[in-house]
Amino acid sequence: MSTPDKSNKQKRIEGDYHEPEYISIVVSDPTRVEEYITYKITTTTTFPEYKEREFSVRRRYKEFVNLRDHLKQKLAEKPKAIKFGELSPLPGNNLSSLFGQGRFEPEFIEERRKGLEQFLNSVANHNYFRFIPLLHKFLQDQSLTLL
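Structure tokens predicted for PX domain-containing protein:
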């Protein structure tokens, strides 16, 4: 008679290594498309909510705004979630950058890229926002558009 195999859970208890959960997001490669800039978002994660360990999508600033609006709405529906921390801001706009050629200046694009990266890492690592399905789609679904 053979002994039944131990489950993975039992093996972990006995000391086998278990990789910690993490998510890291890099916003890079700003590219001008007509009258706007898109950013490449590359995510590396072990969070079980995601289909793969590494994936990339391209998004424009307006989609970040719409994502943040959605997260803000979710927070309003569950105000007790604020105990996990506030919703991070997006990098700001100014009138010359919105309507003039300033939005295509390398310095402005780089500052925005850094702010977008900081925003995404903040919400993806947030104990409430990390479980919002739209965030998962935003980071991994190529066909999603939030315009």
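The longest helix spans residues 106-124.
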